[in-house]
């Protein structure tokens, strides 16, 4: 079974803190994604990566950065956490071959609260 | 701008009812449409529909892709309380490095 593991289920941080959300996948997938999910807004893409050290901005990258030093690990960084970043964060991975899409598998989510 | 729209946004039914969830899309270079079920945690994959596979079925769940109408439906027959979840529709475009475009989801609640 594909496994995508996020380092924390629940996290509480203070405003202004630097926050790291970690995601690891065990299926050698090329693509990895970070989404945030808010009630009524669905899943919005923050950043994604299609290879080691490669990254692309999604729809809402402001206030976030990412790091992909190894193929299996994709980190989301909140440089200076703010209360409007309180949300559910979901990591996903998929493989990708040419123009064929593969199924994205999700981690269990990290519910981040910024106080 | 690419769009994926799901309807209804929420739905409340009783056990045993049949429900139909809708997803319409306006994207360039469409490749596939995926349905996910999300309970209190991670979305789990249900179906993927493509030009070569426009109908899928698994137990009480089935889905059809209508490429002419640019839409898909997800049917659930004989609903059970365990079907209560958010159902997410996502579309993949070609040449976008595998990213998915999600709708806002349909919150389904099944009462006993």
What does this 3D model show about the protein?
The complex is a heterodimer of chains A (115) and B (112). The model of chain A has no long low-confidence stretch (mean pLDDT 91). Chain A has a single domain, classed as Immunoglobulin-like (Sandwich), CATH 2.60.40.10. Chain A is mainly β. The radius of gyration of chain A is 13 Å and the shape is globular. In chain A, 0% of the residues lie in helices and 59% in strands. Chain A has no helices and 13 strands. Chain B has strands at residues 3-7, 10-14, 19-26, 30-38, 44-50, 55-58, 61-66, 71-76, 85-93, 100-102, 106-111. Helices cover 0% and strands 61% of the residues of chain B. Chain B is globular. Chain B has one domain (3-111): Immunoglobulins (Immunoglobulin-like, Sandwich). In chain B, a hairpin with a 6-residue loop joins strand 9 (85-93) and strand 10. Chain B has 112 residues and is an all-beta fold. In chain B, strands 2, 4, 5, 9, 10 and 11 form a 6-stranded mixed beta sheet that branches. Chain B has a 5-stranded antiparallel beta sheet with strand order 1-3-8-7-6, with no helix packed on it. In chain B, 35% of the residues are buried. Chain B contains no helices and 11 strands. The chains are: A mainly beta (115), B mainly beta (112). Chains A and B meet through strand 4, strand 5, strand 11 and strand 12 of A and strand 4, strand 5 and strand 9 of B.
Task: From the alpha carbons, calculate the radius of gyration of chain A and give it in angstroms.
Answer: 13 Å
Mean pLDDT of chain A: 91
CATH class of chain A: Mainly Beta
Query: Helicity level of chain A, as a percent range?
Result: under 10%
In short:
The complex is a heterodimer of chains A (115) and B (112). Helix content of chain A is 0%, strand content 59%.
């Amino acid at each position: 079974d594909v496994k995508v593991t996020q380092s924390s289920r629940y996290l509480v941080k203070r405003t202004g803190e630097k926050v790291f959300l970690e995601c690891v996948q065990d299926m050698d997938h090329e693509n990895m994604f970070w989404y945030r999910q808010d009630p009524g807004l669905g899943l919005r893409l923050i950043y994604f990566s299609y290879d080691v050290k490669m990254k692309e901005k999604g729809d809402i990258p402001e206030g976030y950065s990412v790091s992909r030093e190894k193929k299996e690990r994709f980190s989301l960084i909140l440089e200076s956490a703010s209360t409007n970043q309180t949300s559910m964060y979901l990591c996903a991975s998929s493989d990708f071959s040419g123009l064929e899409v593969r199924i994205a598998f999700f981690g269990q989510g990290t519910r981040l609260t910024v106080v | 701008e690419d769009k994926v729209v799901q309807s209804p946004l929420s739905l409340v039914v009783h056990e045993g009812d049949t429900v139909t969830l809708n997803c319409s899309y306006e994207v360039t270079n469409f490749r596939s449409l995926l349905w996910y079920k999300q309970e209190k945690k991670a979305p789990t994959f249900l179906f993927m529909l493509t030009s070569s596979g426009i109908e899928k079925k698994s137990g009480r769940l089935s889905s059809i892709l209508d490429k002419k109408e640019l839409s898909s439906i997800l049917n659930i027959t004989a609903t059970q309380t365990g079907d209560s979840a958010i159902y997410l529709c996502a579309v993949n475009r070609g040449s976008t490095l595998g990213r998915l475009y999600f709708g806002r989801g349909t919150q389904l609640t099944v009462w006993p």
